[in-house]
# Entry
Amino acid sequence: MSNKVVSIEYTLTDADTKEQLDSNVGGAPLSYISGMQQIIPGLESELEKLNAGDNTDVLVKPADGYGEYNEEAVQTLPKEQFAGIELAVGMSLYGTGENGETVQVIVKDLKEDEVVIDYNHPMAGKTLMFTVLVTEVRDATAEEIQSGMVGGMQDSCCSDDGHGHDHAESGSGCCGGGSCS
# Structure
């Protein structure tokens, strides 16, 4: 199923710890265009089988979600590279990657002269459980297909919230994982 606008309500939990990680229940549904890799593949492949009004639980292993945790993605950098930033363990920092893309890192540890940062996605290595209600399935308009955005170009409210446009865990419902500003 490609070029369908799918809208969902969901609650996301860590399948191992049962900790709730995100939910948009009671808020705007998350809408995405199928086949455009706007949400994680393990969730999208299961949602393709559903119709409006269906609800289900979808278990997503790391390989079909945010990937396995990669120890090599943890780096120690000199603290002076972060001059002017009030750092705290657990905070997210955003920068620009080699190809101009936005990159999120998490501050893992602070040492006297060094900062340990983690380039892994915060949900890397986690098995995720999505409890999903499909609220709508419709054909995407030509403008939506061309722009890759639900609502077309006039709905250009998307900005990366650190989760990325290919991840369904932002409750905003804006472009499949962005945040409206």
Residues 71-118 form a domain with the Thrombin, subunit H fold (CATH 2.40.10.330). The chain is about 5% helix and 35% strand.
